């Protein structure tokens, strides 16, 4: 895959380039600030962009803004945002266009190389990946929601894994249950939340996240 | 003090007197000549009424008294107000003394709060990230010793070290959130408050009218105050809906937070609201709580502050 990387911290940028290279991906541009990122994204049109949220010159949410600006010009340009902190408000902004092909995860996740590569692959394929921390925050905000309240503890776990963007196989692996059991749980969860069954994994994630942000 | 009735009567009577004397002057235009003859000379204001001409002049002057009285009336009322305020309000010196008292109390509160904050940060670092990093160093050291003899054990130790590092990061993140939340730094108060509403367990309706950004210390104080009030509402109110209104006008930032819970919140009980009150007082801000039994609870905050113009970004 062709990757554009935006990370202002030298050590992390270097590490990410090496990590991506080790898994056979080509970093076509590595930038360290917001304006350069926007240029790189629009000229290279990468298969996926890996972007740090906080970038110079403002050291605020420059990376997020550049990513959103690029996606408004190149719809559904796959972008994986990395951050020291995850903020549900930013997740909502990333998801707002409903196009998918976005990821938003903590920088810590980079330390598990194989899992991180799965995340990148999923986003590049048009999927949606949310950090478990985002999902936990959104789920806890639904403490008094009737729909979420009516779920069994196991169904809540499946819902959380769903919202993180995992496939049935991924959920089965994470929760140590069979894929058949996962399908059964999902079949119970969707009617309880008043959601319609979705034909694709990505539509399913977006529907669940939209429900949690309501 | 003894002057007060005299001043009051004088100020109250002045416009009425003007009207009466105006009417008298206009009367003189008709009967002035006769009266002057009967009383052997007669003056109206500065006009000696001696014949027809001067009598008419007195009449015209009398007529002019009426608009003068109209013009004067509201001003005498205001003058009386100012006089009364002078008598009743504390003197300039008393006001200054009160202000100095307030400033020294809020300053020592601010210093105490800051010190407590620093101590908390130090403790959190010491018990949290620092301890984890020490443990991680020891784990890695053990792994190094086992490298030749027991690769399986080394793998377990490395996994443990990685877990320690993510725990340390998690604790550092929580710590930073408690000091200065990233969303507040990135986006300012309006979005930070929206972010709070987004993760609140209560359904929160947010209305924000904030045309710029307050100074960072004010933003931070208001953010933590809102956060505390929302947490209180979720924990204690028993309601399920919150209305949050944040607006700026006439040099004053106002936040109103209302829930549909059972009410009965008391500012004198519990340290949360007290803490907010003290934090806001540093900026001459005030906190008011109205919470009758059976609700609703309404918390209002007001902080005088200036706004900087909205930040424009380059992309």
UniProtKB/TrEMBL annotation, chain A:
The keyword DNA-binding applies. The modification 4-aspartylphosphate is found at residue 52. PROSITE patterns: HTH_LUXR_2 (PS50043), RESPONSE_REGULATORY (PS50110). InterPro entries: CheY-like_superfamily, NreC/VraR/RcsB-like_REC, Sig_transdc_resp-reg_C-effctor, Sig_transdc_resp-reg_receiver, Tscrpt_reg_LuxR_C, WalR-like. One of its GO terms (molecular function) is DNA binding. GO terms for biological process: phosphorelay signal transduction system; regulation of DNA-templated transcription. Residues 2-122 form the Response regulatory domain. Residues 144-214 form the HTH luxR-type domain. This is DNA-binding NarL/FixJ family response regulator. It comes from the Bacteria. Keywords: DNA-binding, Phosphoprotein, Transcription, Transcription regulation. Gene3D superfamilies: 3.40.50.2300.
From TrEMBL, chain B:
The chain crosses the membrane at residues 7-33, 53-73. GO terms for molecular function: ATP binding; phosphorelay sensor kinase activity; protein dimerization activity. It holds the Pfam family HisKA_3. Residues 220-305 form the Histidine kinase/HSP90-like ATPase domain. Residues 119-184 form the Signal transduction histidine kinase subgroup 3 dimerisation and phosphoacceptor domain. It is an enzyme of class 2 (transferase). Keywords: ATP-binding, Kinase, Membrane, Nucleotide-binding, Phosphoprotein, Transferase, Transmembrane, Transmembrane helix, Two-component regulatory system. InterPro entries: HATPase_C_sf (IPR036890), HATPase_dom (IPR003594), Sensor_HK_TwoCompSys (IPR050482), Sig_transdc_His_kin_sub3_dim/P (IPR011712). GO terms for cellular component: membrane. It catalyses: ATP + protein L-histidine = ADP + protein N-phospho-L-histidine. Its EC number is 2.7.13.3. PANTHER family: NITRATE/NITRITE SENSOR PROTEIN NARX-RELATED, NITRATE_NITRITE SENSOR PROTEIN NARQ. This is histidine kinase. It comes from Streptomyces eurocidicus.
